[in-house]
């Protein structure tokens, strides 16, 4: 079984990102992202099998010692090899540190098959369309649609969660990060 640790946005920002994904479905270009039934997020780490109870305990400890972070989405991009369209968070040292510290905190779990989520190889992104099964033309149309509809977004990364990567995605545990005002 595969698992991921995901960083979640505040509800308003989450809705704005979801609305961009919904546009692609509304235009009948692709519904795959919506079929996964996942919330807009930035994946911090992926693992093969984890002891769920142990991981939840470690995740709770981690969340208690880390604050919410400002979230700024400044651009959109794509992975052309998988035909994935995504929103790109504007990165800063706090986000890189959060991801590095999470990997250190969860080092007992096997992440070896997911090197693109390891510190120093990570390309933070929030998926908006997963189009590997769709035509090239639909992908190009969706890219154009997202480009024309996108506006910079500002909000907060409020919580962190453990999900089981299944179809659809199963959110196992979500923990609020410490408040920015703590």
Written overview of the protein:
The protein has 182 residues and is an alpha+beta fold. The protein has a single domain, classed as Alpha-Beta Complex (Cyclic Phosphodiesterase, Chain: A). Helix content is 33%, strand content 31%. The protein contains five helices and seven strands. The protein has helices at residues 11-26, 32-35, 52-64, 93-105, 136-149, and strands at 2-9, 41-47, 69-79, 84-89, 126-130, 153-165, 170-176. Strands 1, 2, 3, 4, 5, 6 and 7 form a seven-stranded antiparallel sheet that branches. Strand 3 and strand 4 (84-89) form a beta hairpin. It is globular, with a radius of gyration of 16 Å. The N and C termini lie far apart (36 Å).
Taking the sheet with the most strands, its summary is: 7 strands, antiparallel
Radius of gyration equals 16 Å
Order of helices and strands: EHHEHEEHEHEE
CATH class: Alpha Beta
What is the total number of structural domains?
1
Overall 3D geometry? globular
> What is the CATH topology?
Cyclic Phosphodiesterase, Chain: A
Q: If classified by CATH, what would the architecture be? A: Alpha-Beta Complex
By DSSP, the count of extended strands is 7
- DSSP helical segment count: 5
Share of helical residues: 25-40%
Ranges with pLDDT <50 over ≥5 residues?
none
Classify the beta-strand content into a percent band.
Answer: 25-35%
CATH superfamily: Cyclic phosphodiesterase
Alpha carbon gap, first and last residue: 36 Å
Let me know the average pLDDT: 94
Classify the secondary structure makeup into a structural class.
Answer: alpha+beta
